[in-house]
Design a protein that fits this description.
The protein is built from 5 helices and 13 strands. It is of the alpha/beta class and 339 residues long. A 6-stranded mixed β-sheet has the order 5-2-1-11-12-13, with no helix packed on it. It has a 5-stranded mixed β-sheet with strand order 6-7-9-8-10, with no helix packed on it. A two-stranded antiparallel sheet has the order 3-4. A hairpin with a 6-residue loop joins β11 and β12. α4 packs parallel to α5.
């Protein structure tokens, strides 16, 4: 079995540019002949209008294909549909979609940056100030972005019903590998302004607090039930990385070591790397990030990941690849022994 994943498509003002071969990363992913594609969120940027041209740092000009729907923030049904229709103007994405089954998560930019339920928009670009979207991911039950240091186990990203479902299904699974698609990374600090956090971590390397409490519960319950083969796949932060989590390095000990692989963006501004939070003992084994914020797709730093599971051995191999499909880093995880 082989599948690919990435996230963050047509963001930060970088649209389809024929001069730079459009969304060429989809051609590279298609050439890997995957069984399916997992998109880890930000399938579109409904809050990210495009301009016709952007001057690059080296003096070249990036020219965007622009449609009426992509020239403003999306507020109407037609404008939201236009976000998805725009991406399909690219020949590489169309060819990819014609051949490869997809599993798509939503993150925030399908609505607005760092969205959470009940948020009141203060952005003057919007005439409509309240947005409600109900999806089964790390947005639907997400609490407001604040300092993320509370001790309340009833708050978080997943919500009690989804958290209990995840624990129950992980315990019941007989699969060798349990791949968890989390559109927000676990140990990467993702600020939302000066005093609030967008993600799970908050940069406090001590005992779990805030949204970390949910994941401490999931990891603890899985460990005590003897669940093996957990692998987390994510995007969101617009660079690629391999993080290994180990209780020997962590502030909390009651979990089994696991990997989290980050890949993206597919076609958006590149950022990072972000700080990591030591609560669950992450080690950044590999990082490929740009030299400055919002680096354009013309300068590289666009990424997708590939997972291959070998039939006879059940070993899982991960490649972190660039826009051309070249492998930047790889590792093979042997099949875990069952307890």
């Amino acid at each position: 079995m082989r599948f690919v994943w990435t996230g963050d498509i047509v963001g930060q003002g970088w649209g389809i540019s024929p001069d730079f071969d459009g969304l060429a990363i989809f051609r590279a992913m298609r050439e890997r002949r995957p069984d399916f594609f997992l998109c880890s969120g930000d399938t579109v940027y409904a809050d990210g209008p495009l301009t016709e041209s952007v001057v690059l740092p080296d003096g070249r000009t990036w020219r965007n294909l622009v449609t009426p729907e992509k020239s403003k923030v999306a507020e109407t049904l037609a404008e939201y549909r236009g976000q998805f229709a725009y991406n399909l103007l690219d020949e590489h994405l169309r060819a990819f979609a014609a051949e490869v089954p997809q599993i798509n998560q939503w993150d925030d930019h399908e609505v607005v940056n760092n969205w959470y339920p009940g948020e009141i928009l203060t952005d003057e670009r919007y005439g409509e100030k309240r947005v409600d979207v109900f999806v089964l991911d790390m947005r639907t039950y997400k609490d407001p972005n604040d300092g993320n240091t509370y001790a309340d186990r009833n708050r978080g990203l997943l919500g009690r019903a989804q958290r209990e479902w995840l624990i129950r299904e992980l315990r019941a699974s007989r699969a060798t590998w349990k791949v968890i698609a989390n559109d927000l990374p676990i140990g990467v600090v993702v600020p939302d302004g000066a005093d609030a956090q967008e993600g799970v971590a908050q940069g406090d390397h001590g005992a779990p607090a805030g949204r970390e409490l949910e994941f401490a519960e999931v990891l603890r319950a899985s460990h005590r039930a003897g669940v093996t083969g957990l692998v987390f796949l994510t995007a969101d932060v617009h660079y690629t990385a391999a993080h290994h989590y180990d209780p020997a390095r962590a502030a909390v000990r009651d979990f089994s070591p696991f990997w989290e692989f980050v890949s993206g963006p597919a076609h958006a501004g590149a950022f990072g790397p972000n700080a990591v939070d030591g609560t669950f003992g992450p080690k950044a084994v590999f990082v490929h990030a740009p030299p400055r914020a919002n680096t354009s797709p013309a300068e590289g730093f666009q990424h997708f990941g590939e997972v291959t599971i070998d039939g006879p051995s059940a070993a899982l191999t991960v490649h972190l690849r660039d826009r051309s499909g070249a492998s930047l880093w790889t590792t093979t995880l042997p099949a875990p022994s069952r307890r």
